[in-house]
Amino acid sequence: MTDVTKLKSAFPDVVVNVEEYRGDVTVILKQEAFLPVCTFLRDDPDYSFRFLADVTAVDYKDKTPRFVVVYHLLSHEHNQRLRLKVPLDDMNPEIETVVNIWPTANWHERETYDLMGVKFLNHPDLRRILLPYHWDCHPLRKDYPLEGKGEE
Hints:
Elements: H1 5-10, E1 15-21, E2 24-29, H2 34-43, E3 51-59, E4 67-75, E5 80-88, E6 94-96, H3 105-116, E7 119-121
Parallel strand pairs: 2-5, 6-7
Antiparallel strand pairs: 1-2, 3-4, 4-5
């Protein structure tokens, strides 16, 4: 299990909560210092989270915040996993890209944008990856209409 004591000490005002379930650790972060936290987790020798396995988002439709972006990190060096969650604004879900920290984020963020409508600011190529360009909605959102969308 990943010890996040050093992370909480380094970013005391950013770490909102730490949850542990069956050996998996989840850190919930405020959005404002998200990039420095990610860089710290990658570069600090006690963590060495150099692999971003996945980026996704969750739509909690009737809750606030409605959207949460989820990042799954892996440290091969320490054989550790860590999940980061960042709650986003309900009306305009957007967050800075982590492509400059973990290049594999390029595709993960595009997929999350395409299916959930989360905008990744400063992404080098944020465009749809699965759906046609004319599609006017995001099919994994809870308010996605099942009929009539995306048709020409």
